[in-house]
Amino acid sequence: MAKPIQQRDIHAWQPLSVPEVVAVMRGATVPWWIAGGWAIDLYLGRQTRPHGDTDVLVLRRDQLAIQQHLCRWHLYKTGQPTPSRLAPWPEGEFLKRETGINDIWIKNEVGRPWRLQLMFMESEGERWVFRRDERIGGRIDELGWQTSEGVPVLRPEIQLLYKGRLADRRPKDDADFAAVLPHLATSQWTWLAKGLKQQFGDTHPWLERLSKQTSGPSEPD
Predict the structure, then answer these.
(1) Which of 7, 2, 215, 218 lies closest to 111 in space, CA to CA?
(2) Which residue pairs from 181-187 have beta carbons closer than 8 angstroms and sit at least 24 positions apart in sequence?
(3) Quick one: the chain helix, strand, coil %, rounded to 5?
(4) pTM of the full predicted structure?
(5) For residues 77 and 88, what is the distance between their CA atoms, to the nearest angstrom?
(6) By the 8 A CB rule, do 177 and 56 touch?
(7) Residue 30, Cβ neighbours under 10 Å: how many?
(8) pLDDT digits (tens, 9 = 90+) for 138-162
(9) How is 38-59 classified by DSSP, letter by letter?
């Protein structure tokens, strides 16, 4: 007999596909974007590696609207990158930035695998703010782009900024960087290089690759 999945087993994932996420998020009254590794692959127009989960980015200020939209699902709040504080997310509880909780894990039935991860983006007015360095940010209406099917996706250079941690960067983050770098427009890789230098000086290993970029494809819409 197969071992039953524990309610809070952090390794039990059966992620929704991107089309399934679109169906789940249809009718949401606040902005959202496909994020994580799928943000890179959607930009490239092909899947470059397996994805252990599917991520959706929302603004922290919009979290209760999303909670209500997903009211038929089981929602758990968690600390990241290590989900050490996995616990049910009570209806109506607004998770302030000070809690250190930036992610919500979602399943459609207790005892079943996790299906979706929500990630919170900080914002101030109409500006998004990079949580690890508040000097970095930009206009919320320029956070993402849309596929030909109308799927909202986080811009790759912004996703790479989040993936570009020094202390706990993962092999898949380096793989995503290598896969998408040749396809970034000049404004995108120069923005990423500036953000990395602002945080880490000249110590980040991606900066050498970025410094060798002399041009890029046409600017994104």
Answers:
(1) 7
(2) 181/209, 181/210, 181/213, 183/43, 183/44, 183/216, 183/217, 184/156, 184/157, 184/213, 184/216, 184/217, 185/216, 185/217, 185/218, 185/219, 185/220, 186/213, 186/215, 186/216, 186/219, 187/216, 187/219
(3) 35, 20, 45
(4) 0.91
(5) 6
(6) no
(7) 14
(8) 999 999 999 999 999 999 999 999 9
(9) HHHHHHHTS--S--S--EEEEE
Q: What is the C-alpha separation between 148 and 211, in angstroms, rounded?
A: 32
Q: Are 106 and 117 in contact (CB under 8 A)?
A: yes
Task: Map out the domains of the chain with their CATH numbers.
Answer: 18-155 (3.30.460.40)
Single-letter amino acid code for the residue at 190: T
Q: What letter represents residue 193's amino acid?
A: A
Residue 129 burial (CB count, 10 A): 19
The answer to whether 119 touches 102, Cβ cutoff 8 Å, is yes
CA distance 5 to 10: 10
> For the segment 78-120, what is each residue's pLDDT rounded down to a tens digit?
975 556 578 999 999 999 999 999 999 999 988 899 999 999 9
Query: Tokens for 101?
Result: 């909780």
- Local structure of 87: helix, strand or coil: strand
Q: Alpha-carbon distance 192 to 209, whole Å?
A: 12
CA dist 130 and 140 (Å) reads 12
Contact between 151 and 22 (Cβ < 8 Å): yes
